[in-house]
Amino acid sequence: QGSGQSCAFQARLCLYGRVAGPMDLDSQAVTAERALSELQQAVQVTSKDARGKSMSVAERQKQIASFERLAQRVKNALESYKLELRALSREQQAEHQHRIRTIEEALRQARTQIDWKRLDAENAAGTGAAASGAASSSSGQEADSGPVTLEQAVATADKIQNESQSSVARSLGMVLQAEQVGITTLGMMHGQDEQLARIGEDVEDVKANIARSRKLVGQIARGAARDRCIQMLCVLITIAILVCITLAITGKDGGELNVPDPVRQVGKE
Fold first, then answer.
1. What global pTM score does this model have?
2. Is 124:78 a contact under the CB 8 Å cutoff?
């Protein structure tokens, strides 16, 4: 009883990550790899029995079900392996990651092969049903058909000929419709080409207008600059005249400036 309690206590510690021995990890890894090897060997088996004949649809479905059970065993063993790995440190976990990735990749490849085998079984089931239906239909037709007379053969030929002529007429109608659609499409493309040409001409006109506008703006700017210079010159001349008059009135020009006498008289008064 004491040993049983000790084992239970150790199991609880392992569950919470407090005890994790390398023997448990190795056993889990070996279990997962052994289950994977059994799955790979089972998947490699062909869909033929011991006598070399192809298996029936039911046998294939049963075989695929066994493959699924083996794949589930591998998945469960791999999950147990990962669960035991949680108790280790990150450095110790890194040593087992490559092994886990190898098992996962092999399991993925095995499941791909299982999917292909399932698809083959479904295709075989559909082909078998179609073949049985065709066989029953042909057997019924053979049972109903009797000796064909000349009138029946001529009537059948006329019917086939009429159907062929109707099919040819429908084909010609479709060709004429396709031709009309092509003509309409060409007309639309021609109209679009003309529209694109007009758009190109409009773009060139816009470019020319922009160039003319730039020239006009430059001319206006240069005219404004010249007008400003003339205004400044007029202001300077006016200031010079006022200075001369002021000097003549005050008599500080020494009589050198040529100004009217009344102006000098104003200064003397």
1. 0.39
2. no
